[in-house]
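User: quick one
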Amino acid sequence: MDALSSTFAALADPTRRAILARLALGETSVTELTEPFEMSMPAVSKHLKVLERAGLIERGREAQWRPCKLTPQPLAEVSDWVEQYRELWERRLDRLEAYLQKLQADAANKPRRAAKTGAKTSAATRKNKETGHGRHARGKK
Amino acid sequence: MDALSSTFAALADPTRRAILARLALGETSVTELTEPFEMSMPAVSKHLKVLERAGLIERGREAQWRPCKLTPQPLAEVSDWVEQYRELWERRLDRLEAYLQKLQADAANKPRRAAKTGAKTSAATRKNKETGHGRHARGKK
DNA sequence: CGAGTATAAAACCATACGGTTAAATAACCA
DNA sequence: TGGTTATTTAACCGTATGGTTTTATACTCG
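Assistant: Done. Structure below.
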C-alpha cells in the first residue's frame, strides 16, 4: 500500500489517534499505553503495529520494554496533501458568506417570498459552466 | 463512527483520493468518474457512498444523472487535526538540522568519520512557513 | 407504451480489521 | 536455575471492505 494510504488508514481509528496524542507527550511503554483503554494489551499491540507500518511510530528496545516513540513525519505528508484543498474549502466558505449576505440584503429590500434556496441545482450548474466541466460533456466513446 | 474517523477512512484509498482530485475540478457524473479506473461502475458507486457518508461529497439529481460535488469541509477538520502536530514535526526537523550542524562542526574539528546525512526536509513545511498559512487562524466551533 | 441510458441495489466472494484468550518470547532478578 | 514482568504471536471470531456480476430502478425520448 502507498504511504499516504497507510497513513490515512492508521489515522482512521480513534484508539490509534489517542495513542499518537499520548506519544506526543513523550516516549512510553505498551503497558502504559494500554491503561487508558478498555482493551487487552494484544489489541493495543496490533494498533501499534499498524502505526509502525505507517511510519508514525518507532520502537526501541530497553530490557523487556519496547518503548514507543512518535515519528510525525508522515503527518507532514498528510498536511501537504490536505493543503492542496485549502483554497477550495476557504473559497466555498467565502461563497457561502457572500450568499448569506445577499440573502440578507434581498430580505431587507423585498421581503415577499423566501427563495426556494435550491442553490443546489442552479449554483452547481453555473459552476460547471464556469469551469467548463460539464457532466455529460463527453458522450459515448 | 465519529466524523474524523470516517473522513480518514474515506481518504485511505487512492481511488477515492483520485475521485476527490477529479471533483476538485468540478461537478461530474458517475460514468465520467469511472472512466479513468479499471473498475466497474458499481465499485465506483460504492466508493462514492463512502465519500458521501464521510461528508466529502454531495449528490444531486438531474434526470438520470446523479452528479457528484465535492464538499471539502471535512478536509478542514483533517487539517485542524493534523496541525496539532505541526510543531512536533517541525521541532523534530529543527533538531535534526541542529544535529546535522553539530555533526558538521565536529567533522570540521576532528574529521574522522562521515555522517549519514539523511536530511529530507519537507518542501511543504517550508512553503507553509513562507505563505504563513493561517493554519489555525480559524477557531473551532 | 417501449427502448435506451445512468445509476443503484443485491448477492456473492476473498481478504482485512479489530477484538478476544491462551501460549510463546525475551529480558530482568534472586 | 527458576520466577516475574513486558510484550508478541497464534488461533479464532464477527464484521467491514473492495471488488465482481446480475438485476432493478429512475429517468428521457420517440
